Amino acid sequence: MGLALYKANGQEAAITDLENLRQELDLWTGGLTTSYFIEGVPVRVTLYGHQQKDGIAFRITSPLIAQGRLKIRLRFPYGKDCHVCPGYDWEHPEKHQSQMVTLSPKTALVMRTLDQDKYAVGLQWAGRGTWRQAQPHTFEFTPGNKTTHVECGVWFSPTPHTRPLPGFADTQRSSIQGWKTFWSAGGAIDFSGGADPRAFELERRVVLSQYLTKVQCAGSLPPQETGLTFNSWYGKFHLEMHWWHGVHFALWNRIGLLEKSMPWYAAVMEEARKTAQRQGYEGVRWQKMTGPEGRSSPSSVGEFLAWQQPHPVYFAELLYRQRPTAETLNQYKDLVFETARFMASYAQFSEADQRYHLCHPLIPAQEIFPATETDDPPFELAYWKFALQVAQTWRTRLGMAPDPKWQDVIDRIAPLPAFGGLYLPAARATEAYTRMENREDHPVVTGAYGMLPDVGMADPAKMKATFQEIMRDWNWKTTWGWDYPMLAMCAARLGLPEEAVNALLLDVQKNTYLVNGHNYQDKRLRIYLPGNGGLLTAVAMMAAGWENGPEAAAPGFPKDWKVRYEGLKKML
Length: 572
Known about the structure:
Elements: E1 2-5, E2 19-26, E3 31-38, E4 41-49, E5 55-61, H1 63-66, E6 70-75, E7 78-79, E8 84-85, E9 88-89, E10 96-104, E11 107-114, E12 117-126, E13 129-135, E14 138-143, E15 149-157, H2 168-185, E16 188-190, H3 199-217, E17 231-232, E18 237-238, H4 242-251, H5 255-259, H6 262-267, H7 269-278, E19 289-290, H8 311-322, H9 326-346, E20 348-350, E21 355-357, H10 378-397, H11 404-412, E22 418-419, E23 422-423, H12 460-472, H13 483-493, H14 497-504, E24 512-513, E25 519-520, H15 529-544, E26 564-566
């Protein structure tokens, strides 16, 4: 969606013809204002996104309209089959269809067909003007030539719109009220009282990350790692990343934004059950990389990952802690119990040591280790115990007896593997696991005592030594945006607030936050929302604390930071 602008000689203007360009996003109202000049003639565009409907509306003001030198242009691409890319294909117009239908003097509809997918785009405008199809998949709106402004809206829906579409004023009101509620009702934090020069940068990242995750990660589906901006991993979302996209909503007192995506798990539960049954397990095995239909995507890594499995139990517990009612328990009990059934059946009992193990084929969250040789990754072991404990608690809350199999796994799950006073990324490890070539990718061993509460498996002294060794000697180029908040959470639980801040603001490329707040990874992956969500989770935890943690204010920050906050919730 854009504008076709014409010079006085009739030639269409290029982007390089824009002069004095200024664009400003008002975070408080959601309004995006863009202004510039074409050959000395001003153009001003004000745009808002509706907060309850999938659409935008905008007002354009310019003398170019009366001069017949401005049109609104709408173009539709085909979808791009790629790993990471913008997601559009302009080269194959024959592979999709776009058909315009006029509904009234002020509304029209474009019916879209791409392979087996269909959706509708509603168009609404005020004032004189007409839409027409200029080319295949290209539509243009020509305003009347007796005005200097025009208003238009674009609305997306799986089916044709049957109700009147909102106008610009309605959309503006929706945006202003929605964003006012978002900023007023959620948590807030202020670092301005301290002397650390890094405080302003951290606050900037926090504010912009709240905006970006609300826009990109608060829909009815778990989001892509690049949200709605462009395609990553073929446009699929990864359920192990849902924790990083969603937990912060609960801690920032916006749990409703997490809950919007929870019905999806129920909708795809039967697909997950088929996977568990096919592999010989009970309950449901949640997908790793998938799309809206819940089909598990083939992958040499993803099909062996398991750390996404406990996430729905963690989410459900967050929901119950903030809404501790029978309704919450009954709404999510199947999700919790079916997840736990798989987890208990997945753990394998060894007669040799009388312990339950997480056995190969398995790839841990630190994905560099081969599936056929990896057992008992420590983060997954701790997460297994945590989730099964929560599931047992849910049975108690519902007046049910504890599940004996679940309890047996809880009581006899294998200890976290260690060597030389350090926790290791997997069992059956020797000193080879401490070599530098294995100190890359996610240092997720720290998640066992950072993302997760103390479940009685990690020795704090040994975890402290492990954390300090990681910070001293790790291949930081191979890490990802959520690794730094994960390290910060571990440091906070260990009573190392200075180290927590250092980890959160580690000066490495993949911990870069652009001017717009996006977490930059590299030229291929220019935005990475798990980093933004992880940052918000860690900051909330460091400020509000965690259950059974210190009662002091802001226990995860050094005392000289003078942190002020309100509305933040303790982490589990």
